[in-house]
Amino acid sequence: MVRLLVVLLAVVALIGLAPAAPVPKHLLPKDGPLYHPVQKGTRWVYLDNGAEYHYELTAADPTASGTTVVTISQMKNGEPTPYRKVEVSERGLLWTETVGIAFDTPACLLRCPVQPGDAWAYSLSRPNTALARAKGTMKVPGTETVEVPAGKFAAVRVDEKRAVLAPGLPDTNLELTSWYAPNVGQVKWVCGKRERVLKSFTPAKD
C-alpha cells in the first residue's frame, strides 16, 4: 500500500508541470531573452482550476557553463517546500528536479532560439526506478498573445505529448500545452480540463 502511494504521488508530480522580473542588461544573452527569471525573491501566484498557489524563486546558482540553476519553492503558510529546479540559459529551459528529487535525465521544456515548427523528444527518469518515469515530445507552433489575470503576454506556445510510466499501473498518456513569456516563465498551462494561469507576478527586489 505504501509503495502504491509513493508511485501515485510521483505520477501527480510528473503530471503537474508547472510557473516579469526585468533581467539586468549585463545578464541578458546577446542572441535573445531568457524565458525565466533568475533572481532570488521573484514570486508567482497561479490559479489552478480555481485554487490559488504561491511560488518563490528561493535560490539561483550559476554554473561553470554559464547557465543558472533556479530553485522554485511552493509557499505554504509562509514556508517554502521543494517544487522544482530549472536550468535557465539563452539555450532555453531544462527541467532538472521535481519535489526535491533530481532527474537522471532532465527534460528540455523550451529550446532557444525559438523557431516555429521546432520539435524534440525527451525522457524523464529518476535514480529510484520504482518511481514514475515519463517520455514524450515537444513542438513549438509559434508565439501567441495570451491574456491571463496577470496581464497580456507575447508567449511561446509549446505543445507536448507525454506518457507517464509507473510500475504496476497502466501508462498515462497526456496532451499538454504551455506558454512561456520572456523574463516571466510559464504564464499558462493546459492539460485536458485542467488549466493553470498566472494571476500575479512580483519581481525580485534589487
TrEMBL record:
Signal peptide: 1-20
Pfam families: DUF3108_like (PF21347)
DUF3108 domain: residues covered: 139-188
Domain of life of the organism encoding this protein: Bacteria
Entry keyword Signal: yes
Keywords per UniProt: Signal
Protein name stated in the entry: DUF3108 domain-containing protein
